[in-house]
């Protein structure tokens, strides 16, 4: 399984608007995506008020690529959120099962 950590920093003043998109669109979309085993959305904290994240566990690399394409190492965003986002990062790891 693949762990995918996606982090977003919003543009200043866009936190509330992005938060609405995050809760109403992004979280339901990711939770309903084939190939995802687990979705852990992360909302901002007082010390990082513009940062949002997703920790996702994907069944395998093929499932991840089916969702985002072959360029899975690039942090894709929905066009609706592009004007709200200052930066984004993506990291992948192999899940260590105990």
Automatic annotation (TrEMBL):
Q: Which residues form the ABM domain?
A: 1-71
The UniProt entry, under Pfam families, shows: ABM (PF03992)
Q: Which InterPro entries did the record assign?
A: ABM_dom, Dimeric_a/b-barrel
This one is known as ABM domain-containing protein
Organism expressing this protein natively: Sedimentitalea todarodis
This protein's superkingdom? Bacteria
């Amino acid at each position: 399984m693949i762990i995918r950590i996606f982090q977003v920093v919003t543009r200043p003043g866009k936190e509330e608007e992005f938060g609405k998109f995050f809760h109403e669109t992004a979280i339901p979309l990711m939770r309903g995506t084939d190939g995802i085993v687990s979705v852990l959305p992360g909302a901002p904290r007082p010390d990082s008020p513009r940062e949002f994240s997703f920790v996702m566990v994907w069944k395998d690399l093929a499932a991840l690529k089916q969702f985002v394409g072959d360029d899975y190492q690039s942090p894709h965003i929905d066009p609706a959120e592009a004007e709200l986002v200052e930066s984004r990062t993506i990291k992948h790891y192999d899940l260590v099962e105990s």
